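Hey team,

Filing this mostly as a record. A colleague (T.K.) asked me to run one chain through the structure pipeline before their review meeting, and I want the input and output archived in the tracker in case anyone asks later how it was produced. No errors, nothing strange. Just documentation.

Input sequence:
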Amino acid sequence: MNKIELAKQYIKVFFETQEFDLLYNLFAEQLDFKGPFFQSETAKEYIESLKSSHWEKCRCAILEEYEDSDSACLIYLFQKGEKSTIMAQQFWCTKNTIHKIRLIFNPIEIS
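Output structure:
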């Protein structure tokens, strides 16, 4: 899978299936994740946090996607109920796995 495909697989699990154990196939063991509400240093820590969180139905519509030699970036409209915001998520990949994710958005818009 190329970087964009890996990123879209992650988005599909997150927004459509919530089968979070599938993310172990996409992530490097030492996944470096940072976002406004959470950060972790391993895939297990991040995936377990997703599994233990109260899940609220949300949707996304990809607006832009970019890829270079090291990373892929998805920019999308995130919607939860009546609230929405633009999010950018950058994924760094090596050996067909994601090893670093940065999630950027204004948390006030969906709180």
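Quick notes for T.K.: Strands lie at 27-34, 39-40, 59-67, 71-80, 83-94, 97-104. The chain has one domain: 3-105.
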